[in-house]
Amino acid sequence: MKIVADENIPYLKEFFGSFGEIIQLPGRKISAASVSDADVLLVRSITPVDAALLENSKVGFVGSATIGMDHLDCEYMQNKGIQFENAPGCNADSVVQYVLAALLHLAKFYNIELEPKTVGIIGCGNIGSRLRDSLAALGIRNKIYDPFLSEADSDSLVSFEEVINCDIVTLHVPISKTGAFPTHHMINEQTLAQMKPDAVLINSSRGAVVDNRALLQSLQITPRLVVLDVWENEPAIDWRLLNHLALATPHIAGYSAEGKARGTEMLYQALSAWLGQTPNMTLDEILPPGPIQKIKLGSEPIEPLMALDKLLGCCYSIESDDKRLRLIGNDSDRNVQFDLLRKNYGGRREFCSLELEHNKSTYTTLYSRLAQLGFKLSCSESSFQ
Fold first, then answer.
1. Least crowded by CB within 10 Å, which of 154, 155, 256, 372?
2. How far apart are CA 328 and CA 336, in angstroms?
3. How far is CA 245 from CA 37, 96, 198, 205, in A?
4. Range(s) within the chain of domains with CATH label 3.40.50.720
5. Closest CA to 173 of 97, 121, 231
6. Model's pTM, two decimal places?
7. How does residue 291 score in pLDDT terms, banded at 50, 70 and 90?
8. How far is residue 346's CA from residue 290's CA, in Å, rounded to a whole number?
9. Class of domain 294-379
10. Phi-psi bin for 340: left (phi > 0), alpha (psi -120 to 50), beta?
């Protein structure tokens, strides 16, 4: 069996080596010629998989190690009898934790009090629903807009007009140009004008959900705090935007070590099922421990937001990701450098890599709330000092 795979998919050899030969290529360079004699194709979001790529190949299985499917021509593959799978929810925790890190950064560096703010979440799927629960655990109010949900699904469900009037608006939708609720340029000149002048905007979904040209024009007239992890026309993004953003990162919100590896594991399980084999490899066997594995919090009372701010230093620095993108020089290779930042990304660790030790006498609702954010808990008989 021959497998052609995006070289940025981690642990390919560990998970797929037993199936046959693996050819690793840059995602943007996977071509019809390179897959012509392949049996399996494994991609990420930057490789369009359609008739132009597959028509003259013998590919029978396509797996995308991502939550999104807008780069996959599912109708074509279904008509051709090609099995296709994605990895829904694989990096949901990673994206949620990116948004939480962004909020804490804005609170710290722009003197924003998060407790009285209301966060508007557009899209309540794998990511939006987990973000809603995390915000609730931190005591931050939120409202949801998702036209595919009913009021029975969420008591915080509101209209689009109401959600974009929240103090903070964060986007968690796929990209679509058709259907009853298209998301392409959902945030545009008109919606930006409807938002509060001081409202925060965060996009970690798909670049074209926000009209980047309209955003730049709006920010030049009315500055506001904006966080962009995704961009239109990646990697040829509008570099002028960087000077107007509070945080700018190179499409890495979902790039935690766990998020990327979890996507590989899900494709491994799907391919095993397609081949009629029983999976014999798990993520826990492959993923190395984090740099910090266990920590004790003091016994003094502390609010969940303050505790999270302290713990983030053990897991992730969003400021470092912002700095790396801004350091790209103003030259003709900057688009290549954008892709290299993604390719060489170190893979931050998720909250689940950190164990919080407590004892029975000091266990409080704080630990329960931190557990809701994804941190592991362990009970110790010793007292905190």
1. 155
2. 10
3. 45, 20, 13, 17
4. 2-86, 92-248
5. 121
6. 0.88
7. confident
8. 12
9. alpha beta
10. alpha
Range(s) of the chain covered by CATH 3.30.1370.170:
294-379
Please give the distance of CA 230 from its chain centroid, rounded to a whole number.
10
Fold of 2-86: Rossmann fold (3.40.50)
Q: Which residues are catalytic?
A: 206, 234, 251
Q: What are the contacts of 46-49 at 24+ separation with CB within 8 A?
A: 46/6, 46/71, 46/234, 47/6, 47/71, 48/73, 49/73, 49/77, 49/84
Q: What are the pLDDT digits (tens) for 220-260? A: 999 999 999 999 999 999 999 999 999 999 999 999 999 98
Cα separation, 378 vs 374, whole angstroms: 13
Question: Look-up: residue for tokens 């070590």?
Answer: 257
Structure tokens at 349: 């660790």
3.40.50.300, 3.90.1300.10, 3.30.70.270, 3.40.50.720: CATH of 92-248: 3.40.50.720
3-state secondary structure the chain: CEEEEECCCCCHHHHHHHHCEEEEECHHHCCHHHHCCCCEEEECCCCCECHHHHCCCCCCEEEECCCCCCCECHHHHHHCCCEEECCCCCCHHHHHHHHHHHHHHHHHHCCCCCCCCEEEEECCCHHHHHHHHHHHHCCCEEEEECCCCCCCCCCCECCHHHHCCCCEEEECCCCCCCCCCCCCCCECHHHHHHCCCCCEEEECCCHHHECHHHHHHHHHHCCCCEEECCCCCCCCCCHHHHHHCCEECCCCCCCCHHHHHHHHHHHHHHHHHHHCCCCCCCHHHHCCCCCCCEEECCCCCCCHHHHHHHHHCCCCCHHHHHHHHHCCCCCCCHHHHHHHHHHCCCCCCCHHHCEEEECCCCCCHHHHHHHHHCCEEEECCCCCC
Instruction: Write out the two tokens for 49.
Output: 């998989």
pLDDT in tens, 331-362: 779 999 999 999 899 879 999 999 998 776 55
